[in-house]
Design brief:
This protein is of the alpha+beta class. It contains 11 helices and 37 strands. The strands form 10 sheets. Strands 27-28-26-25-31-35-34-33 form an 8-stranded mixed β-sheet. Strands 9, 11, 12, 15 and 16 form a 5-stranded antiparallel β-sheet that branches. The N and C termini lie far apart (90 Å).
């Protein structure tokens, strides 16, 4: 089967585009396509001036055609085609049309979003299906399935499905919100069955289990065990013993550390790994290549495993329809140990065995197997595992600055983060990068060391120790007062959320933060007022803030546990109230007195 995809857009410009970065989305008329699956049939664009006359027209001869893939991909056959338009005058209308012919449409999901970050007068999605072809479709908004029935018309040998929306307001972009594409209403469809030229009805995978079996058939011959792989496994396990977990852990760490990430994705190479033999020989590959090589090495060691496809992101994308392309952007591995399955992601550079980075946690993923596996929840983020505990013991000077020693015990993704910056940042930038991992506001790290800095085989905390400088208050003068708030010591840990917010709040992985500052006061200075302790407990978080004065020093401890990853729209009022209470607590002032003149 083939599909003909027609994209038509008409945008009216109401403001001058010059110097406006957001206007680039409308003055750049582009479409993406694959050299393997698509053939561009037609392109045309024009700018109609405020007076209704066509000022500029463009066609295939004017089009720019160039590579279009992310910077973490070495090469792919995806491309962009279109034109960059000169800045149109306010009141102008930009029109464009692209037509492409796509083969193997059963591999893909086709979708349309209703709305944009500008007002939309009309948005229409039309699908024409010949007799003998059957489509399936779902609609969703904010990642939740909704009902959206199309208008259905029969004409000749075609069935036409039409979804249309009018007068849509602009999507308001807010901080810590899901991606705009998930907040808009959208319809997603796929080709479920079709009649081939011989009159035989062909069917796409009917459900996730069938898609698992279909993917296994595509990938099965890519697991190739060579003498070189067998020799490498023997070498790596020579001193490990017979414990399956220890053996799997060693092979995982070697794959993570020794196979460079390098993506070459051409045609089905976007969905199917290169052979394990090639990846072992070349010592590079993308996520599915690394997972597939580890699968082959584990097999040599007598341990079975399953490649797992997953959508890795901070926002949990839903599984929509059982198609090869559209539900997943990443591949990891599920190691089937006698003690139970263990999730691993050999693409990461620092995450240990039996742990996952935050973008893999709290997801529905699809293990690939010949029997056909169902959608399976990945490892859940856990505040007991994703934890930072820090202490700074500082001496406050009369000018309001403070300096001293700090320690931070980092677990989970916090530990991964410090190890990753040691691998990626030049030495001169590392102190500033470490300061960003710490909770202390406006701190300058002057010296630091990291214990357990090497990416470990198994979960191991990282311990960061060093010295820092920061500003805590205004100068403390004899006979005068100076104020210190929590905000002067710690960076905020919650986003600013307005009462009028409309979008869910993405908090990131569930995590625990326990941070303390001990502030030794200057000679003669004292405390005349200490803020009251604060304790806040809701369905979304637990927050504690305490102040104490002991032996001439102020001790401030802030504890926070994020219990959820995402605050849904229905629970925003309670979360907004909690954020306001936290913000008020952190603005309370400790009053320092500079002593007698």
């Amino acid at each position: 089967p083939v599909a003909v995809v027609i994209e038509k857009n008409q945008v009216q410009v109401f403001r001058a585009a010059a110097g406006d970065d957001e206007s680039e989305d409308y003055t750049r008329v582009m479409t993406a396509y694959s050299q393997t699956f698509d053939r561009m049939l037609h392109f045309a664009a024009r700018v109609v001036g405020p007076d209704g006359r066509a000022q500029q027209t463009f066609d295939d001869d004017d089009a720019i055609d160039g590579p279009a893939f992310a910077d973490f991909i070495l090469y792919a056959d995806d491309r962009n085609r279109g034109v960059d338009l000169p800045d149109p005058a306010p009141g102008s209308v930009i029109e464009s049309v692209f037509v492409r012919r796509q083969r193997s449409p059963e591999l893909f999901a086709y979708g349309h979003m209703f709305g944009a970050d500008v007002p939309v007068l009309r948005s229409r999605f039309t699908v024409e299906v010949p007799d003998g072809f059957v489509i399936e479709h779902v609609a969703e908004a904010f990642g939740v399935e909704i009902e959206s029935k199309p208008r259905v018309e029969k004409k000749g040998g075609l069935t036409r499905y039409v979804w249309e929306r009018r007068d849509l307001p602009a999507l308001e972009l807010e901080e810590n919100a899901p991606p705009p594409s998930t907040m808009l209403e959208q319809v997603v469809l796929r080709l479920a069955s079709w009649t081939d030229d011989a009159g035989t009805v062909q069917r796409a995978p009917a459900d996730p289990e069938a898609l698992s079996r279909y993917s296994d058939a595509l990938m099965r011959d890519r697991v190739q065990v060579t003498p070189e792989i067998e020799a490498k496994v023997r070498e790596l396990l020579a001193d490990v013993g017979d414990d399956p977990r220890a053996r799997a852990r060693r092979l995982y760490a070697w794959t993570r550390d020794s196979i460079r990430y390098c993506a070459v994705e051409v045609g089905m190479g976007g969905f199917v790994p290169h052979s394990s033999a090639d990846v072992e020989k070349n010592r590079y590959g993308d996520c599915k290549d690394k997972a597939n090589l580890l699968k082959a090495m584990l097999h040599v060691a007598g341990i079975e495993s399953r490649i797992v496809t997953i959508f890795a992101d901070q926002w949990p994308e839903p599984f929509r329809l059982p198609v090869l392309a559209g539900n997943f952007n990443h591949a990891i591995l599920l190691v089937d140990l006698p003690s139970g399955p263990v999730w691993v992601d050999p693409t990461t550079r620092t995450t240990p065995f039996d742990d996952l980075p935050p973008v893999d946690e709290d997801r529905l993923a699809l293990p690939i197997s010949a029997r056909g596996d169902p959608l399976t929840p990945t490892l859940a983020s856990d505040p007991a595992r994703e934890r930072r505990a820090s202490t700074a013991e500082l001496t406050l000077a009369a000018d309001g600055t403070a300096q001293g020693a700090f320690t931070a015990e980092l677990n989970g993704f916090f530990a991964d983060g410090v190890r990753d910056l040691l691998l990626s940042e030049p030495e001169a930038r590392r102190p500033a990068a470490v300061a960003k991992l710490l909770p202390f506001d406006d701190a300058r790290v002057t010296r630091f060391t990291v214990d357990n800095a090497t990416p470990p085989e198994e979960v191991t905390p990282a311990l960061v120790k060093g010295e820092l400088q920061t500003r805590v208050s205004a100068p403390i003068k004899a006979g005068g007062d100076a104020l210190v708030s929590t905000r002067a010591l710690f960076r905020p840990t919650l986003p600013l959320v307005a009462a009028t917010r409309k979008a869910p709040v993405v908090l990131g992985p569930r995590q625990s933060l326990v941070d303390t500052v001990v502030l030794k006061l200057p000679a003669g200075a004292g405390v005349t007022r200490t803020p009251a302790p604060v304790e806040i407990e809701t369905a979304h978080l637990r927050y504690l803030l305490s102040w104490a004065v002991v032996d001439g020093a102020v001790r401030v401890t802030r504890e926070q546990t994020n219990k959820v990853r995402v605050v849904p729209k229905a629970e925003l009022a309670a979360f907004v109230d909690a954020c306001a209470r936290v913000a008020a607590a952190e603005e309370q002032k400790l009053v320092l007195h500079g002593g007698d003149r």
